[in-house]
């Protein structure tokens, strides 16, 4: 199985509330269609989740009753995004079915407390492509919390040990500095723990409701332990995801767990 995360920064415009990048998503769907192996797809929430979740402190859990209408509306918005992604996938010929995170996992302290692979396994067994996503979920200690797509990547990687996990980002991979701010930023072709320790933590400034870039990279290293190969590719460059899926060499960062 191949596990793919379509990052929220690729399928949405992260700066504009609920703006879906339909042509990028449709192209990625066509690239996914050519995958030589069964797929499980995870997508982020982008501007369908982060903006309103941050505004109302949803990542902090239940603090006041007034948050609840925003819990409801962010849940609705990420489902709207999920429907758009499903539509793009189905139009490209992928038999995609939605599996919301809370259908397979329970949550405590903003983390997955238990995960059952069954919902995904059953879909995969009959050649359907499960699609899950970053969501607002019930949480036994916080009332509710945010489940990122990356948390689902981790649970799925552990459960299914995919041959390949691909993170589609809006940059070519991991850089030694923020490539959107520094012109001279250099791509790190192989990221291991040592390389991560060498990276500056300034990226933490841009933390969204599911954590800093540094934290996300730490999680990717943990995910890589459960995959034959784990990589970050630029989903905005046509053909790159498709080539990565078919095992060809592409500009990327390969994440290795040592
Ligand atoms: C965020 O999921 C979920 C919500 C804010 C509800 P992700 O953290 O996986 O989303 P992206 O990829 O960063 O947009």
Describe the structure.
The protein has helices at residues 8-11, 22-33, 50-55, 68-91, 118-125, 149-160, 193-197, 213-224, 240-245, and strands at 2-6, 39-43, 96-98, 105-108, 111-115, 129-133, 135-139, 143-147, 164-169, 174-175, 187-188, 190-191, 229-234, 253-255. It is α/β, with parallel strands linked by helices. The protein has one domain: Carbamate kinase, CATH 3.40.1160. The chain has an eight-stranded mixed beta sheet, with helices on both faces. It has a two-stranded antiparallel ribbon with strand order 4-5. α2 crosses α4 (68-91). The two termini are 23 Å apart. The site of 3-methylbut-3-enyl trihydrogen diphosphate has 20 residues, from α3, α4, β7 and α6.
Q: Report strand %.
A: 15-25%
Put simply, the count of helices is 9
Shape assignment: globular
User: Roughly how many Å apart are the termini?
Assistant: 23 Å
Bound molecules: 3-methylbut-3-enyl trihydrogen diphosphate
Largest sheet strand order:
3-6-2-1-9-13-14-12
CATH class: Alpha Beta
- The secondary-structure element order is EHHEHHEEEHEEEHEEEEHHEHE
Let me know the average pLDDT. Answer: 95
Q: How many β strands by DSSP? A: 14
Low-pLDDT regions: none
Largest sheet: 8 strands, mixed
CATH architecture title? 3-Layer(aba) Sandwich
State the fourth-level CATH superfamily: Acetylglutamate kinase-like
Sequence-ordered SSE layout with sheet pairings:
Elements: E1 2-6, H1 8-11, H2 22-33, E2 39-43, H3 50-55, H4 68-91, E3 96-98, E4 105-108, E5 111-115, H5 118-125, E6 129-133, E7 135-139, E8 143-147, H6 149-160, E9 164-169, E10 174-175, E11 187-188, E12 190-191, H7 193-197, H8 213-224, E13 229-234, H9 240-245, E14 253-255
Parallel strand pairs: 1-2, 1-9, 2-6, 3-6, 9-13, 12-14
Antiparallel strand pairs: 4-5, 7-8, 10-11, 13-14
Helix pairs in contact: 2-4, 6-8
The structure holds 3-methylbut-3-enyl trihydrogen diphosphate.
